[in-house]
Fold this protein.
Amino acid sequence: MQKLIIAAAAALTVLGGAAFAQETIKIGYIDPLSGGGASVGEGGLKTFQYLADEINAKGGILGRKIEILPLDNKTNPQESLVQAQKAIDAGARYITQGNGSSVAAALSDFITKNNTRNPGKEVLYFNYAAVDPSLTNEKCSFWHFRWDASSDIKMEALTSYMKDVPAIKKVYLINQDYSFGQSVRADARKMLGAKRPDIQIVGDELHPLLKITDFSPYIAKIKASGADSVVTGNWGQDIALLLKAAADAGLKVNWYTYYAGGAGGPTAIKQTGLDHQVFQITEGFANSGHQPAMEFEKAFRAKVNMSLWYPRAVNEMRMFKAAAEKANSLDPVKVAAALEDLKFEVLDGGEGLMRKDDHQFFQPIYISSFGKLAANEPFDEEGTGWGWHLVSKIDTSKTMVPTTCKMTRP
Amino acid sequence: MLELIVISTLNGLLFGMLLFLLSSGLTVIFSMMGVLNFAHASFYMLGAFFGFQLTKWIGFWPALLLAPLLVGAIGMAVERYGLRNTHKHGHVAELLLTFGLAFAIEEIVAMMWGRSPVDYRVPALLDFPAFTIFSTNYPAYKIFMLAVSIVIFVALLIVLKRTRVGLIVQAALTHPHMVGHLGHNVGRVFMLVFGVGSALAGIAGVIAGPALVTQSDMAAALGPILFVVIVFGGLGSLPGAFIASLVIGLVQTFAVALNGSLASAFGPLDPSAGPSVLTDIWNVTIAQVAPIVPYLLLVIILIVRPMGLMGTRES
């Protein structure tokens, strides 16, 4: 018996050694997989796993396969750092995260410090959704790359569109009470004030992040304010439940949102009957009309059984591969250098640029509205029969905003 | 403004009644056994998940009946095989038992149903606006929740105040030994009360699940506020719990509806001082602090009247 165990142990060691020789590229995925942010976190995880499979099926990156390590941060900055350390200990040299700018700021800082302390063992941080402008301005870091348009880029585009809608007279702002929500509210006030000084801001609400289970008190307040439009950066359950409460109360306003397309949002919009009155600003959407993107969407839906919320994740993973191949190395420092000023054809068409100055990715931005589908729009959302429809496209060159970033380079 | 007041009152009443469904069981259990049941909110969560699962299998209405019975049975089992055995080791052991139970239930629920919210929907029969006040719809389901809570409140009151069972329960609250000497099985009374308390939490879970969010952290989110309710109302006092539930429900809802801040009351601070921590505090609105208002109330009541609103003893 004892011999058998020794033999088995020896066999395991050999097998383990063999597995070690063709080691995978580990990417730590740190996002909420429990609590209020879980619905979006799980959606993101499925997206990255799909993208990893796609690249692996074509031989991986430089012959090595990608492995996504799912790590639950409960949308908590402190917990995220524990998970980041766990990822690094497990051998991950790349970390990706998106939900929560408070988390992103903590991670960016943690990874920057980690890289100074451990030369030769640097870690890169790919941010696919945390859009607080400070991450590419005063808090910018060489080790942080952002693929989503920052909040001020989105608000610039959104207000440029709102400027030309004369029906907007009274606007209500409702946002989550943390760095991102506060920047949405400040940007909206500033930009609306500059572009349409006649618009009245009739409400400016901040509510706790991912803690509210019933938004009806807030909806009653919006109703009482007499607003005709609501601007919100809410995401995750905070947008789905907000729209659900609006549907229950029969609130009829126009919604200008960042993330109405997330889990639960489309169902609630259909329930309100607000046909093409909910707008969303994204770097791509299902019915964009760009052929390769629509084929990707079709294959993605068939396999993962959800719509693609994160076209930017596709750009992120494909650019990672392009940069590693350009550098002919998987060393994070070399990949980072190759990513700088890298131009790339994005999923939904058009050229994007990873700006060297602040590591912000610039790409075409779309405003779309949710409602009944036209004949050439094949994709609906959450089985509602309604889908996203193109309202306005903003080219890459018009999204370039200045940066104050002064980056310390290795 | 009137519209806001009416809608907020309705929302506040509804939240308050839901809190009462939960806190009534908790406070009765406390006054009987002297144990703060940390797992009480977990029974509420179990109610929501059982409701969700049974709705899928047999429909909402049978689930509304069955799920609380199941939760009540689990509650009785916890009392009979858990609390009764630890009772001889004192209150701390009992407290720790319920504390551990709360974590265990949360993990089991997460294992069975996952950590993200489940799709627990309002039954089609009640999925319509009940009435429209000043152009705001009020969902029929919320009226239904309110009705269920009121029916249970009245039933509880009648059972406790007008029946023999209620008499024995009330006597056992204060004089368990005397009740035992009179030939009643006090152990069984405790078990039944624990079961009924858990079942009440179960009902709250079944009806609140579709309106709020059914997910594995819902117990942890609601637990602390329950303790506020029973301490505020006075430990062991049912009328106290009732008043405290309504007060906290209304206060929390109206706090959201108010816009006042120190800045709007006394004017903005001198801008030349520049942004600082003080300007942040100065500009915080009542709506922003709404979630902590109940805890502030808790602190104030403990300072001013440590036995709570209707409490009779200081503990």
